[in-house]
Write a sequence for this structure.
């Protein structure tokens, strides 16, 4: 059979159109990202200086000032969330990966996947009902619990996925040396999945760092510097939310700078998470 | 030639979901000898050797019946952790722990069992066992690097060093050279010859030449039955059973 020249041309053209449109749409995707970054950098860079990190917000009418209370609040809330979500998430991940035959394994997997799909404001409401109403006050702890619930599925999934990649022969090798189940998991399997778990944790942290909705019902915000997690506490997303909707020009500036600060941290965490896996 | 026995298997029967993989096997393994277990694929040789250090406990679908006597104790009724500390195993594919350095890999048995050692004890265990497997000179410069950088043959010798470090009485080798090139295979075979002075070795092999080169005794398994068990010389020169003879002349396999 002779090759059909005209058909070949058509096919090559089709191929080329397909190839070019993949490239085109990939580049098109960069446009909104570039606009967001450009806009935030342009508006936020002027106030993002040392003062921003170490000073409290200035009173209305005064220029300058920083976001110290929100920065500290954000780190405290996210830190406590991590302390709750990381150990729990790793344990759940081990259960998902190791006990596939167990009768509640499917149920656990379903719960974890459902948790991932719940809108973040629901977490806020749940934490409000569980921890704000009974104690009669907003608190950093209740915010941490709401965010920990959001982070939990990410840590659990990352643990499960990385444990699945570990060859069974490693476990056999450990058992053959007389190790029990606990030390096999602790000293062989988990250290071998360290990279995957760490990157899951970092992505989880960068995800909850920018969450606003759950904090509205829990941390509530605080105009003063507060280290007490049992009291209302400020956080960067709350500060952005409150200041951006205020009528004051100086506060808008702080909100822009806070946005830039958040984006730098989240971007940094994502880059670290990617490099950890390599 | 009468030898001391180290392990006695009696009426061993292993089944997976009603399928009998090992059908009522009895045999004794001799001290400071190399015993090769050979046979065509699916004859149950790996299943047999894995029963000796209770690896079947990992998979609930395996049912093991009979008795395996080691030092007056029935291994099938002992604690699997104690059994595995006395009867070490090296697997088909080299599997050094990727999270540990070469140094830590040799000490892995101690680390995993939570046995505390002084720095001097650790150093001497690592030195002695790396020397035993002929790895000392090759890795002494980067002993604290990860073991996964080594070649396949080196990794397998590291795995043998890791097993020897626990001072087992019996060393089980499950096709230890099947993933290695001929040169690395020769090194391991020479090593097996050296090691039998201090440990009794039971190895599974599908390589007939390997069995004839390194073993003192050979067991021939076929479809879960022990067809013939004798000194390697006898098996290879005057096999009693027709099936052994046919296997050795590669009529099947």
């Amino acid at each position: 059979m002779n090759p059909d020249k005209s058909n070949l041309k058509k096919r090559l053209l089709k191929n080329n159109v397909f190839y070019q449109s993949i490239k085109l749409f990939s580049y098109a995707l960069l446009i909104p990202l570039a606009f967001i970054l450009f806009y935030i950098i342009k508006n936020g860079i002027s106030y993002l200086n040392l003062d921003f990190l170490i000073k409290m917000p200035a009173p209305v009418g005064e220029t300058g000032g920083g976001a110290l209370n929100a920065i500290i609040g954000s780190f405290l809330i996210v830190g406590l969330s991590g302390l709750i979500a990381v150990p729990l998430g790793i344990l759940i991940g081990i259960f998902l990966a190791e006990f596939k035959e167990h009768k509640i394994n499917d149920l656990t997997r379903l719960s974890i996947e459902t948790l991932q799909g719940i809108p973040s404001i629901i977490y806020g409401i749940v934490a409000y009902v569980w921890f704000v109403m009974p104690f009669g006050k907003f608190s950093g702890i209740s915010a941490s619990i709401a965010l920990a619930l959001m982070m939990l599925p990410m840590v659990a999934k990352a643990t499960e996925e990385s444990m699945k990649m570990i060859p069974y022969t490693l476990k056999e090798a450990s058992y053959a040396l007389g190790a029990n189940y606990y030390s096999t998991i602790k000293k062989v399997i988990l250290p071998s999945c360290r990279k995957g778990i760490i990157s899951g944790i970092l992505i989880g942290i960068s995800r909850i760092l920018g969450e606003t909705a759950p904090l509205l019902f829990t941390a509530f915000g605080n105009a003063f510097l507060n280290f007490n997690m049992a009291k209302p506490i400020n956080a960067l997303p709350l500060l952005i939310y409150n200041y951006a909707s205020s009528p004051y020009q100086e506060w808008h500036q702080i909100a822009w700078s806070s946005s830039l600060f958040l984006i730098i941290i989240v971007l940094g965490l994502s880059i670290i998470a990617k490099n950890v896996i390599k | 030639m009468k030898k001391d026995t180290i392990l006695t298997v009696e009426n061993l029967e292993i089944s997976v979901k009603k399928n009998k993989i090992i059908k009522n096997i009895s045999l004794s393994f001799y001290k400071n000898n190399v015993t090769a277990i050979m046979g065509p694929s699916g004859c149950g040789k790996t299943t047999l050797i894995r029963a000796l250090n209770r690896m079947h406990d990992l998979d609930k679908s395996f049912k093991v019946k009979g008795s395996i006597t080691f030092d007056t104790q029935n291994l099938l009724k002992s604690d699997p952790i104690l059994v595995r500390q006395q009867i070490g195993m090296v697997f088909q594919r080299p599997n050094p722990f990727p999270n540990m350095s070469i140094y830590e890999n040799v000490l892995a048995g101690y680390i995993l069992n939570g046995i505390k050692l002084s720095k001097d004890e650790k150093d001497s265990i690592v030195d002695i066992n790396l020397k035993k497997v002929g790895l000392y000179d090759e890795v002494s410069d980067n002993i604290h690097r990860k073991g996964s950088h080594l070649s396949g043959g080196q990794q397998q010798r590291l795995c043998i060093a890791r097993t020897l470090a626990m001072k087992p009485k019996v060393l089980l080798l499950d096709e230890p050279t099947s993933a290695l090139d001929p040169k690395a295979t020769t090194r391991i075979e020479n090593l097996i010859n050296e090691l039998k002075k201090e440990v009794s070795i039971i190895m599974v092999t599908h390589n007939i030449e390997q069995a004839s080169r390194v073993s003192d005794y050979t067991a021939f398994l076929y479809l879960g039955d022990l067809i013939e068990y004798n000194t390697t010389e006898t098996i290879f020169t005057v096999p009693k059973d027709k099936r052994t003879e046919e296997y050795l002349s590669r009529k099947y396999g």
Remarks:
- Chain A has one domain: 68-277.
- The domain at 68-277 of chain A is CATH 1.10.3720.10 (MetI-like fold).
- The mean pLDDT of chain A is 92.
- The radius of gyration of chain A is 24 Å.
